[in-house]
Amino acid sequence: MKRRALVIGGSIGGLFAANALRGIGWDVTVFERVEDDLASRGAGIGTHEELRAVIQRLGLTVDETIGVWVHTRVCLERDGRVSHRLATSQLQSSWARVYRLLKDAFPAADYRFGMALERIEQDAGGVTAIFADGTRCRGDLLVGADGVHSTARGLLLPEAQPRYAGYVAWRGLVDEATFPPADREIFECYSMCFPEGEMMLSYPVPGRGNDTRPGRRAYNHIWYRPTDFHEALPRLCTDASGRCHGISIPPPLIRPEITARIKAEARELLAPQIAAIVERTEQIFFQSVFDLESPRMALGRVALLGDAAFVARPHVGAGVTKAALDAECLAREIQAAGGDLDTALACYERERRLFGARIVARARRLGAYIEAQLKPPSERTEADRQPPPEYLMREIGTINLDIRALTAPG
Ligand SMILES: Cc1cc2nc3c(=O)[nH]c(=O)nc-3n(C[C@H](O)[C@H](O)[C@H](O)COP(=O)(O)OP(=O)(O)OC[C@H]3O[C@@H](n4cnc5c(N)ncnc54)[C@H](O)[C@@H]3O)c2cc1C
Q: I need a surface site. Which of 19, 64, 122, 178 has the fewest CB within 10 A?
């Protein structure tokens, strides 16, 4: 009889796991808390060779429509001059494009929206997931791919909590068609600005409908800004009616005066070409930046995967790639262990926990100077010093070699 996996979370990590486990002959059902398609979510993401390789090994097509190649990185000064230039190639895609590829490859009937996991029961024979509507589903394995605020992790490892990094990422997308001829060169580049204690990155990605044709692409920007947890963050998360939504807020509820202030500060601090892009952004939104390290990735018949297990700050641009590698490793170990789940999960945890811990540490080092802005200058250490632009330009989002090194044993 086919073995059954219950995948909790139908985002990118859950879909990688679902497709990989289906690929080794398992019967898989995905349970997603949100009521309808997630494709309108997300923004641009950097990809790595390893991500494209996992997608290909799943039997899915990776052609030029997966993203937009960028071959040059530039650092722009406050006055708009290019101060540094670096030749390096990276394929920039979008969250929605990768999601759509994985979602379309998985049978729609086995993907259930509006199912929020609430409890887990385990015994020697398997695992039962209990959902908010009272539904109970039994399987041989439960994959917790339910993101940074994972219910599965919260139930099994309540002590493993995400830690706010001290800054937020302001994000947005602008259509290529809005770029004036004078800014064409910028559009083709991965641009970086480094105001003191901050970091602004922008690069081309697929446009509306995941279109990668010239003229129809989009430009994605991410601006990391120190934001105090106790005062500034709650202020950002408070809507026009005075309600504070916690540590995040739905983008349309961000107050107009906050958006206006961000645009004004962009004019003050960023290169004029980049400030103009921020100005033209219809919906600016922000995400708080977290570190998360789980002490375990496998507990009984539950495997944690993707952001539910480890969250590295986005400077390594590796969340999607990490989730893909976790999923592939899980399926590979299950197959290698001939169905012996205890052995498979122990091997999975050994390999992926090491990877997760190292990548979190690397991303933390890259963002340490932004976090340090909230400390009085007298308390800042050498590790808090802002690295030179050449270093950041080389290191940000480029982890191909590191992934291989991290994957190697030892
Ligand atoms: C500013 C920023 C920039 C980023 N840039 C990049 C980049 O360039 N490259 C890159 O690879 N990654 C990037 N990432 C990271 C990337 O978005 C995530 O790592 C990736 O989506 C991992 O997905 P996941 O499936 O593990 O978790 P998530 O995408 O968070 O998905 C979790 C899913 O579980 C569902 N869920 C939650 N609770 C329950 C429940 N109780 N029951 C059922 N379902 C539930 C949620 O609705 C959600 O759909 C970035 C992230 C941020 C914040």
A: 64
Report DSSP letters for 10-27, one per residue.
-SHHHHHHHHHHHHTT-E
**Closest atom of ligand 1 relative to the 289 alpha carbon:** 53
| Rounded alpha-carbon distances, angstroms, from residue 223 to 100, 250, 262, 305 | 26, 18, 10, 27
Closest ligand 1 atom, residue 319 Cα: 19
Instruction: Answer yes or no: is the C-beta of 287 below 6 A from any ligand 1 atom.
Output: yes
Ligand 1 centroid distance, CA of 95 (Å): 9
Query: Does any ligand 1 atom lie closer than 6 A to the CB of residue 31?
Result: yes
Whether residue 147 has its Cβ less than 6 Å from ligand 1: yes
How does pLDDT run along the chain (410 residues), one tens digit per residue?
Answer: 789 999 999 999 999 999 999 999 999 999 999 998 776 666 778 888 899 999 999 999 888 788 999 999 999 999 999 999 999 998 888 888 899 999 999 999 999 999 999 999 999 889 999 999 999 999 999 999 999 999 999 999 999 999 999 999 999 999 999 999 988 889 999 999 999 999 999 999 999 888 999 999 999 999 999 999 999 999 999 999 999 999 899 999 999 999 999 999 999 999 999 999 999 999 999 999 999 999 999 999 999 999 999 999 999 988 999 999 999 999 999 999 998 999 999 999 999 999 999 999 999 999 999 999 999 999 999 999 999 999 999 999 866 445 444 544 33
Check if 117 has its Cβ closer than 6 Å to any atom of ligand 1: yes
What SS3 class is residue 193? strand
